[in-house]
Records
---
Amino acid sequence: MKRICVGHHVVDWVAKRTNEFGNFGASQGIGLEEFRDGWKIIAGVAYAEFNGVNVVCHIAAEGRRWATREYLGTIFDYPFTQLKVQRITVCVGEGNAASRRFVEHLGFTLEARLNKAHPSGDLLIYKLGKP
């Protein structure tokens, strides 16, 4: 059984898994919990740096069975419908091939490459525009 959850505890969960320093600033989180001896987060998205037209998205997950249609719909509904952004930005370290494949599969396109700006090499900047 799975359920969607919302709150800053999701932001903290994502930050611990994306090698951030535990803080995205003012942010919102949408998570997916699964019941395993109690409710536990298995995926989360933290939204940060909202400026009216763009929001930066940080994604983390455990396992492979979390990307349900309902959850994906929810995590894209929030920025495009509720925040009314024109685009979402995702930054991925060059060495994180699984994350690169995942965001490209979701429809994000590579917009820029920051030379040696990530511990794994270049920092890749992806964008997804409003449908």
---
Amino acid sequence: MEDHKIYILDSNVFMEAHNRYYAFDIAPGFWDALIGHAETGRIISIDRVKKELDKGEDDLTTWANNSFHRWFAKTDDPAVIDAYRRIMEWASNQGQYISSAKADLARDDNADAWLVAYALSKEGVVVTHEKPHPDIRTRIPIPNICRAFNVECTDIFQVLRALGVKLS
């Protein structure tokens, strides 16, 4: 069965790649693969992730604005906003998380809940380097939100494999 999933990238996917294992000068094929699969509709991100990347004012910011800008989807869609509202209601009702964790998730400059809301409303897959933490209290990890809403969540390495990307 062929994979037709749409993968929605978290800011940490871009940042970790840029700062660590896929720097532009070491692995340009990684960045070309992102664009290539974005052009086919398989990889996207959201406008709020772009705002997080814009804070960097570095080569990654330049790349995001010049090469990937078309694939930062808007989150002002009514279905996305409704999914975001549901996530915020869920978070506020979770006794596991302390109030500062809930407040952090709701911050205007935090893309996490919006990322999951977009995936929930569009039946996409969240791609993040965050790991689930069932007992954490001090923050609300993306995979915990995904699990609560039955949204698939994976990391970039699994996406590269699923899409058949070869960095050579």
